[in-house]
Amino acid sequence: MDAPQLLLCSVLFLLPAAVLLLTHRAQGNQRSRLPPGPPSLPLLGSVVWLTNSPSEIEPLLWRLVERHGPVVALRAGPRLSVFVADRRLAHAALVESGAALADRPPLTSAALLGESDNTVTRAGYGPVWRLLRRNLVAETLHPSRVKLFAPARAWARRVLAEKLGEPGPGAAPAAPRVVETFHYAMFCLLVLMCFGERLDEPAVRAIAAAQRELLVYLAKNMPVFALFPAAVTKHLLRSRLDKLRELKRRVKELLLPLINARRENKKLGGESKKETMFEHSYVDTLLDIRLHEDGDRPLTDDEIIIQCSEFLDAGTDTTSTELEWIMAELVKNPSIQEKLYNEIKATIDDDKEEVSEEDLHKMPYLKAVILEGLRKHPPAHFVLPHKAAEDMEIGGYLIPKGTTVNFMVAQMSRDEREWKNPMEFSPERFLPGGDGEGVDVTGTKAIRMMPFGVGRRICAGLGIAMLHLEYFVANMVREFEWQEVAGDEVDFAEKNEFTVVMKKPLRPRLVPRRPQSTSTH
């Protein structure tokens, strides 16, 4: 039973009670101060859910913002969700009143499965979250730790160049679906960073497939659980929960042996003689954690697996999605690609194997290309949802305690009142004199764009994400000229999956600019 059918059945069942409640509902001062939105029925929520799927919410919100203004409300059953589309209101809410929105709403599907919320993205704003985030930032994402993985990045770059350079049928130049290659190379890198081991291709692809299937299933099939009480959904939608358990069980079967291998390596003093094993990994840090608020216990295997899944997903899908959007723009705008290539050539000696992390700091135009890609094509059009820890105001409207609040990232970065020709790809806007000069993606002083969120729950991986985007874009432009193919023209139509991807995947012609290495070791 899909969401509209479920809603219709609920309407028919609850309509008499709804009519009675609507007739006697008091129009109190508090309700009149709530943000505007479509009509709603008691117990059911906004009537728009009868004709709109919660997994395709963005077009609905764009219409509501155009009708009601930059703060709109939707109801899912008794739960109130507020969406904010204005950058100044977002700054006031997330930065100036940061603590009030630093919490997370519970994930309905996780609660139904009895899962722990002890993860960096899902934990409530408190000591457990601080411990987990501090561990991730200090022990894995700190610049000193990131440098330890330079050989891993170089390996992933060689994998990517080799896969992209493979000839097509008859040894003719291939026009690959580059997003799949980006995803594979990034997953190789993130698996190595997470588990400290360089796996072979079948092992990487098995984990990637299991993670991807789980992600897509969650995005497409689980939002409906937020619309109704658990007492209803756990019976009517039992098959979805069973499928979710099966997908999670498959992920556990693949990840737990890798976790146990690191656990055994720690017992041996970290002196593994395997050539494929790295000295440091994210899992090593998770094995050291003790939850002081819960009897000083270590993380359970299930909690470590969820953390690892988050680490892999956050670092792979968003980055590979953004890489495809940026390369699509460079294909469509060859003059911009040529300007970037000339900057790379002027910075890097021809005999140097790669554009290194140190080289990236000398390339302002590369930085501008990445920022423009993130502005025009943020890989996620919403941040992870926040929860109001107390009654607060946004834009003069009351946001009651417990309300879910989200922010329309793409709406802000494409706002024609804030950006000149926002749908034009123009890296120059981030150079001196441009309308994006000096933009700070952390949003500390002001928000112009927020692809990583802002405030206390800003993405912990912002720094490494920018590094990976700059590193791989620079090296792939240095390795290949990216050309548009007749009959496979670039199409910027969007499709919502876990991230917002190209509806028609990019398939360019890649012309090598320099001799290709054949080794991925």
UniProtKB/TrEMBL annotation:
Superkingdom of the organism of origin: Eukaryota
Protein's name according to its UniProt entry: Cytochrome P450
PANTHER family: CYTOCHROME P450 89A2-RELATED (PTHR24298:SF800), FLAVONOID 3'-MONOOXYGENASE-RELATED (PTHR24298)
Cofactors (names): heme
Protein family (similarity comment): Belongs to the cytochrome P450 family.
Membrane topology listed for this record: Single-pass membrane protein
GO cellular component term of the entry, any: membrane
Signal peptide boundaries: 1-28
Primary subcellular site in the record, as a coarse category: membrane
Keywords per UniProt: Heme, Iron, Membrane, Metal-binding, Monooxygenase, Oxidoreductase, Signal, Transmembrane, Transmembrane helix
Molecular functions per Gene Ontology: heme binding; iron ion binding; oxidoreductase activity, acting on paired donors, with incorporation or reduction of molecular oxygen, NAD(P)H as one donor, and incorporation of one atom of oxygen
Annotated residues for binding of heme: 459
Species per Swiss-Prot/TrEMBL record: Digitaria exilis
Cell compartment(s), UniProt: Membrane
